[in-house]
Amino acid sequence: xxxxxxxxxxxxxxxxxxxxxxxxxxxxxxxxxxxxxxxxxxxxxxxxxxxxxxxxxxxxxxxxxxxxxxxxxxxxxxxxxxxxxxxxxxxxxxxxxxxxxxxxxxxxx
Length: 109
Description:
With 109 residues, the chain is mainly β. The protein contains no helices and 10 strands. It has a single domain (4-108), classed as Galactose-binding domain-like (Jelly Rolls), CATH 2.60.120.260. The model has no long low-confidence stretch (mean pLDDT 90).
């Protein structure tokens, strides 16, 4: 089976991407843009593409991945086919706006 790749961006001056329909499969990787204003990635999920919730694990910790520009980031198993997803630059309490538009590719397995 071939992996499906979906583009998404965090616009300049923003910290959160547009929503991504995750019904096509399980999110496996985020392919990072070549330039990145240093920040970890966190996630928001939604069942209806209207109301989004910050994603936390079963221990009460925000689901977060460390990342660098121009790398493939493995997404934690907690980010599954929930309906819709957004990626955020930084934590929920301290988002980091990107200085330029940042284009990602989301890889589904």
